[in-house]
Design a protein that fits this description.
about 30% helix; 7 helices; alpha/beta; globular; 5-stranded mixed barrel; binds uracil; binds 1,4-anhydro-D-erythro-pent-1-enitol
Length: about 325
């Protein structure tokens, strides 16, 4: 037996830089083991390709919108009902399709899925795997993925919308590292520049806030990982914190959050068109703590949702 595991090279459309061009067409899985399964249990969604008629349930899905909080993604689904002119029959409500699992929420409004992913890379990674497999079993085609989130901005007025053109880790590296079979694999986190620009164009029509494109730093921790002084532990000085934040800002980082690297890396690996669009809720060059009122935070968080809703309406020819 060889000392190193043999990894299958299933990439077919990489360019010289390792970039896989995102494309329309059927959702494919780069996993030869899945077709051999008797049943594929999507454990955290409480769905399976045998127990559920996934093509009937999800075959028409074209847009998958992820966001951290279950409540926010329920509100987004309700907002999309109006945006898509969908009718919910009297006495009925939208229901969480994966309610049996209690881990994530999953709502469907016409061709739009609204899915919560929790906080951080491990939580996002699980639901991303299972949603992608669900869309594959459902024979979906031409699907676009969005992450709608919150973030800490750098030198931006809180409430600014940032569209990510490159996701980097806490060392400014543009790939996600995953320990796999005792080795570190690096999955590049490329994003689709075209989609960024289309979303920015929609955002900039709104005069009340700015919509900018830039680099997003993704960290494994909210406190020390994001250079905060106000966690339960901190071993660095305010000067060192400011020097780090200024250094990354000079290198093009506009905001910091906790999922972009994984989202971009997994979407890239799946060759699906995707975008990350986050509002900033604090300027990290001025403060660690988030002190805006609940109402203000709600309004800021609706900004990425409204931009993506407009994009979806345009794609569907509603406006
Ligand atoms: C933004 O906000 C969360 C932390 O408060 C985290 O999920 C993220 O990326
Ligand atoms: N989310 C983060 O991860 N960091 C912030 O500063 C704000 C929201």
């Amino acid at each position: 037996m060889s000392e190193f595991p043999k990894f299958l090279d299933l990439d077919i459309e990489k360019d010289i830089s390792g970039r896989i061009t995102p494309r329309d067409g059927p959702i494919t899985l780069r996993n030869p083991h899945i077709p051999k399964l008797k049943e594929d249990v999507l454990y955290h969604l409480n769905l399976s390709d045998k127990a559920n008629d996934l093509p009937a349930m999800f075959g028409d899905v074209k847009f998958v919108c992820f966001g951290g909080s279950p409540k926010r993604m329920e509100k987004f689904a309700q907002f999309m009902v109006g945006q898509l002119n969908e009718k919910i029959p009297a006495g009925m409500t939208l229901s969480d399709i994966s309610h049996g699992s209690d881990r994530y929420v999953l709502y469907k409004v016409g061709p739009v899925l609204s899915v919560s992913h929790g906080m951080g890379i491990p939580s996002l990674s699980i639901v991303f795997h299972e949603v992608l497999k669900m869309l594959y079993h459902a024979d979906c085609k031409d699907v676009k993925f969005f992450r709608l989130g919150t973030s800490g901005g750098l030198g931006l007025e809180p409430g600014t919308v940032v569209i990510t053109d490159a996701a980097v880790d806490g060392l400014l590296r543009p790939y996600m590292e995953v320990a796999t079979l005792g080795m570190i694999l690096q999955h590049p986190a490329f994003l689709d520049r075209d989609l960024c620009e289309q979303l920015q164009e929609i955002g900039t029509k709104n005069q009340q806030y700015e919509t900018v494109i830039g680099k997003t730093m993704c960290t494994y921790d909210f406190y020390e990982g994001q250079a905060r002084l106000d966690g339960a532990f901190c071993d660095f000085t305010e000067e060192d914190k400011m020097a780090f934040l200024k250094r990354i800002h000079d290198r093009g980082v506009l905001n910091i959050e906790m999922e972009s690297l994984c989202f971009a890396a997994m979407a890239h690996r799946a060759a699906v068109k995707s975008a990350i669009i986050c509002c900033t809720i604090v300027d990290r060059l001025k403060s660690d703590q988030i002190t805006a009122s609940h109402e203000t935070l709600e309004e800021w968080q609706e900004r990425p949702q409204k931009i993506v809703a407009k994009f979806i309406r345009k794609q569907l020819g509603i406006e």
